[in-house]
Design goal:
Blueprint lengths: L5 H10 L2 H16 L1 E6 L1 H4 L7 H16 L3 E6 L2 H14 L4 H22 L23 E4 L8 H12 L3 E6 L4 E2 L11 E2 L1 E2 L1 H8 L13 H10 L2 E6 L3 H9 L6 E3 L1
Parallel strand pairs: 1-2, 1-4, 2-3, 4-8, 7-9
Antiparallel strand pairs: 5-6, 8-9
């Protein structure tokens, strides 16, 4: 057995950064459970009203690669900017109840989910699932494409419910931002990016109330449930697929860990 002096051991410890330790920790969690829950923002699927063909091509390649490595994957699609356009348009025409705006948004998530299921038709379950409590033993495929389910929340909450169903411990929220900020960077120039934040502090940032007009890194109802279930959510920029892969492999990645 090789003996290492205490001084040398101390130096070695200092070389391992906190980020390295965190990355390894989350990799071990996901590697152990072999289940990946991806909340795919609608703005990544259809940014500015146009289907992101190149992004979806590369995303498809990465997902297939992960499937071949034995992962079970659930992709829950959001509504994104298209949902907000429909939302605003409807409200300019007539006075619309929040409940109806929610159903409108859910319909957009279903269209996005059908698009994603179509490009994965060789690998994915035969239909888009909306109910996150669907009996998982009835799904023979490794890949599930899911949409929004019920009013009163964003599709982020559906991702949390899917995590609960599959007993997953971590959700990766693929958004169009690099980090969660301590306040809205669109309004405050001094907003600071957060690499780690507790659920208590995150809820102070996004609030606890839901509205179809809510735009948050992770919706309030979803956040409250994830906090209750003691889940971890990683928010990262989904357009940076190499960064996503680094996260899954336990390498350093750019993003925010909420726990």
């Amino acid at each position: 057995m090789i003996k290492i002096s205490k001084e040398r051991e101390k130096k070695c410890r200092h070389r391992v950064s906190t980020e390295d330790l965190l990355s390894t920790y989350y990799y071990l969690i996901m590697a152990r459970q072999k289940t990946i829950i991806l909340s795919l923002g609608g703005s990544l699927i259809v940014p500015q009203g146009k289907i992101a063909v190149n992004f979806l091509k590369n995303f498809r390649k990465l997902v297939i690669k992960l499937l071949k490595q034995g992962y079970k994957i659930v992709i829950i699609t959001g509504g994104g900017g298209v949902n907000r356009q429909y939302n605003k348009g409807a409200q300019k025409i007539a006075k619309i109840k929040d409940l109806d705006l929610d159903w409108l948004g859910i319909s957009i998530t279903k269209v996005n989910a059908e698009l994603v299921r179509t490009i994965f038709s060789q690998y994915a379950y035969k239909k888009v699932l909306s109910n996150p409590n669907y009996p998982i033993n009835q799904v023979p495929n490794q890949l599930i494409i899911a949409s929004g389910w019920k009013p009163g929340c964003s599709s982020d909450k559906d991702a949390v419910l899917w995590a609960k169903n599959l007993k997953a411990e971590t959700i990766i929220n693929m958004s169009d931002i690099n980090y969660v900020y301590d306040k809205d960077p669109g309004k405050y120039a001094d907003a600071k990016p957060l690499k780690q934040v507790s659920w208590k502090d995150f809820l102070k940032i996004v609030g606890t109330k839901w509205s179809p007009r809510t735009s948050a890194p992770f919706g309030p109802p979803a956040s409250k449930l994830a906090y209750k279930l003691k889940l971890k959510v990683i928010v990262l920029n989904g357009k940076k697929l190499k960064n996503l892969e680094n996260c899954l492999k336990g390498k350093n990645f750019q993003g925010t860990v909420i726990s």
